[in-house]
Specification:
The protein has 376 residues and is mostly helical. Helix content is 81%, strand content 0%. The protein contains 14 helices and no strands. Helix 12 runs antiparallel to helix 13. The N terminus is likely disordered.
Length: 376
């Protein structure tokens, strides 16, 4: 008799043989199991495609939630002064809307004017740079006719293919600006909604856990949201101060686009520690078009401000909200930037702070209660 066909009726298992291990590996219903696995893979792919398709919406929701957490400390401060939460939310919302309108009415036109001035004055700026002594010394040291290289580059821009490429890029940039404006409006609306309903959202989240854990969960959630809000608000404040310093320095050295560089500094320095070091390179190169002396003055002055910011401004602004080790700040920013770009780098620090709070409040106390080794 074939050993593979004999089964024990009582156990419905094959007798011990060389086919026993293979029998245990194969599923009881191969066709059904294969269909279920295939269906699961297809559903996972469909879910991934759906998430990728609505990634812009998810980013807006995510950013709106973080901005709302950044505005929540202002609401809490008003509550501590005797203002009711609805009134505090209304005051913060009006202030936020005024800030948005002020940015749109003041910063955007100034940015457009300065960019237009830079484009119009570009030939004169290039000619002045070519006549400077440091430019001639650079040409002599490199042994390259930089003027010819610049002339060839400018002439290539006048060809038909370059014109079509530039026109397509301009059209794409125009659609990008429209999309950015719509996303900005959506984020502003979501931010106001999250600020107004933050307490309701936290109360609803607490109802999803068992009743005997709700009190501790609510305390932990309040601590996490307060810490994240402090980090976000402190980071925005530091970036605003940084942008103001850049604006003053650029005006002092005679930069043709101080507002543009200040805006760039604001967004770049939202990434803590790394952002300031990145912008000192950006600002130095941009100021080099004014003169080497102006670039040197800017780099030295901005480097001095970085030291002041690190040791004086940051501790006063952030307080205990950003109790995150520096190495975790750098690692979190690098991982976030790799996964989600600038937005990932921005939210990496609040997320890292939240994880540290959960570890300190939940994981470490649980480990401390384990005073005896497990049996066996």
């Amino acid at each position: 008799m074939d050993e593979t066909s004999s089964l024990d009726p009582s156990t419905d298992q094959p007798p011990p043989s060389r086919w026993g291990n293979l029998w245990r590996v194969l599923p009881a219903h191969p066709l059904r199991s294969g269909f279920v696995v295939t269906l699961g893979v297809l559903l996972a792919l469909a879910l991934a495609a759906t998430i990728a398709g609505i990634s812009t919406v998810l980013m807006s929701i995510f950013l709106g939630a973080f901005l709302a957490l950044g505005l929540d400390p202002a609401v809490r401060a008003l509550e501590r002064r005797g203002v009711s939460r609805p009134a505090g939310v209304a005051i913060v919302a009006v202030a936020f809307l005024l800030l948005v309108v002020g940015i749109l009415l003041l910063v955007v036109p100034a940015t457009v004017r300065q960019l237009a001035a830079v484009v119009v004055n570009a030939p004169e700026t290039i000619d002045s740079m070519q006549q400077s002594q440091w430019y001639r010394d650079l040409e002599q040291n490199l042994g390259v006719d930089l003027s010819a290289v610049i002339a060839d580059g400018l002439s290539s821009l006048t060809t038909l293919s370059s014109f079509l490429t530039i026109s397509g890029g301009v059209l794409k940039a125009g659609f990008g600006v429209i999309g950015a404006v719509s996303s900005f409006v959506m984020v502003s609306v979501l931010t106001l909604y999250f600020v107004a309903s933050l307490e309701t959202i936290k109360a609803t989240a607490a109802q999803l856990v068992p009743a005997y854990r709700r009190a501790s969960f609510s305390r932990l959630l309040d601590e996490v949201t307060s810490s994240v809000g402090g980090v976000v608000a402190g980071g925005v404040t530091l970036s605003a101060i940084n942008a103001a310093v850049v604006l003053v320095l650029q005006l002092a050295v005679g930069s043709p686009a101080p507002v543009v560089l200040a805006i760039v500094a604001f967004f770049v320095t939202l990434v803590p520690m790394i952002g300031s070091l990145v912008f000192i390179v950006i600002g130095g190169v941009a100021t080099l078009f004014v003169s080497p002396t102006a670039a040197l003055v800017f780099v030295v002055a901005y480097f001095v401000y970085i030291q002041i910011e690190a040791y004086i401004v940051t501790p006063r602004v952030m307080g205990r909200a950003a109790a995150v080790p520096s190495v975790l700040v750098i690692i979190g920013a690098m991982v976030g930037a790799t996964l989600l770009g600038l937005l990932g780098a921005l939210v990496a620090i609040p997320i890292t702070a939240s994880i540290l709070i959960i570890v300190r409040q939940v994981w470490i106390p649980r480990q401390d209660r384990e005073t005896t080794p497990p049996l066996g």
